[in-house]
Amino acid sequence: MKKNLNRPSLSSDTPLSWSDALLAHPFTQWASDNGKILLYSFLGLIILVFILFQFIWRHHAVSEADFVRAEKEFSLFTSSKDISDPAAEVEALKNLHAIMAAHPELYPKYEGLIAETLLLRGKNEEASLYATSAIKRTAYENDPFYTSYAQATLLLANEKYEEGLKAALNLRNRMLEQAQAFKDTPEKLQYGTFLYALNLLRIAMLQQQLSLFTDELATWKEWEELTLKSHEGTLPFYLKGQLFLSFNNLLSEGKASLADYIEARKKLITK
Questions:
Q1: pLDDT of res. 186
Q2: Could you say which of 141, 171, 186 is where a domain stops?
Q3: Which of 129, 138, 206, 216 is deepest in the core (most CB within 10 A)?
Q4: Could you give the CA distance from residue 244 to residue 230 in angstroms, rounded to a whole number?
Q5: Residue 113 per-residue DSSP state
Q6: Is 270 exposed, middle or buried (0-12, 13-18, 19+ CB in 10 A)?
Q7: Distance (Å, rounded) from C-alpha 57 to C-alpha 61?
Q8: Surface-to-core class of residue 108, CB atoms within 10 Å of its CB (0-12 exposed, 13-18 middle, 19+ buried)
Q9: Statement: residue 9 has pLDDT above 50
Q10: Given a cut of 50, is residue 54 above it in pLDDT?
Q11: Residue 3, C-beta contacts closer than 8 angstroms, at least 6 positions apart
């Protein structure tokens, strides 16, 4: 049976302690109510930075007219939700797909972006088609750890949380094993601090989603230890401290931060 970790209700006449104020803070409430969003752990950032934008778009293979048309159709596709016009979305995607079919070299530029947009709109099946195609196309050029992260993201998009957690834990173990193997030649590592941090955050959020609260607590403690070592300059050689420190600013709303959210989760789990 899942442990009930609902936020305590507070009377408006009762002064808030620091801990209760933290639990009532908009960021903490948003994170608790929208854990599914955090489960994706910045899918768009991973797809865009680590997989898709490492491939150079070859301008010489696409005519000026097709370039303009593709940009226009993609813009229409991404803006169609804002103007509440589903027909415009379908038509723009159809036109963009036709242009990409005529110029396959455009797939690296748009395929992942289309997948990301569809995922954010809840169209997981359609998104999986584009994302899977992008992953297969880049598998031999892309580092295996980033490919594994992207594949696990598709599991989460289809709400396969148990499988997603297993994949995330496996990815962390593989990264640690490679770090041990390459401790004398760190330049050969096939992943960076950013991927390790995102995957660790994903593990914690999945453990929260699956009510594995003891495991979640251990993961948050690992995060805090790495953050402390970042301040001290004593992180393991395969991680860079500045990235861990930047997460408190990246995931913040008002005066709350990721560190505040972790503290709130720890209090809820151990009370």
A1: 84
A2: 141
A3: 206
A4: 7
A5: H
A6: exposed
A7: 9
A8: buried
A9: no
A10: no
A11: 211, 213
Across the chain, which distance is largest between two alpha carbons, in Å?
68
Q: Work out whether the CA dihedral 70, 122, 50, 254 comes out positive or negative.
A: positive
Question: Helices then strands (H, E): number in the chain?
Answer: 14, 0
Cβ-contact 203, 221 below 8 angstroms? no
CA distance linking residue 213 with residue 46, whole number of Å = 27
Domain that holds residue 137: 55-141
- The CA distance from 20 to 15, in Å, is 9
Handedness of CA 144, 145, 146, 150 (dihedral sign): positive
**Structural contact between residues 169 and 218, judged by C-beta atoms closer than 8 angstroms:** no
269 and 149, same structural domain? Answer: yes
| pLDDT bracket for residue 162 (50, 70, 90) | very high
List residues bridging with 256 in a β-sheet.
Answer: 253
d(CA 93, CA 137): 20
Torsion of CA 206, 209, 215, 219, to 10 degrees: 50
Task: Give the count of beta carbons closer than 10 Å to the beta carbon of residue 169.
Answer: 17
pLDDT mean across residues, the chain: 76
Count up the domains in the chain and report the number.
Answer: 2
Closest CA to 151 of 49, 39, 47: 47
User: pLDDT tens digit string along 175-233?
Assistant: 999 999 988 888 888 888 888 988 999 999 999 999 999 999 999 999 999 989 988 98
Judge whether 1 lies within some domain: no
Helical packing angle, 144-157 and 193-209, nearest 10°:
30
Considering the domain boundaries, does residue 245 fall inside one? yes
pLDDT (0 to 100) of residue 49:
47
Residue 69 belongs to some domain of the structure? yes
- Give the start-end residues of each E strand in the chain: none
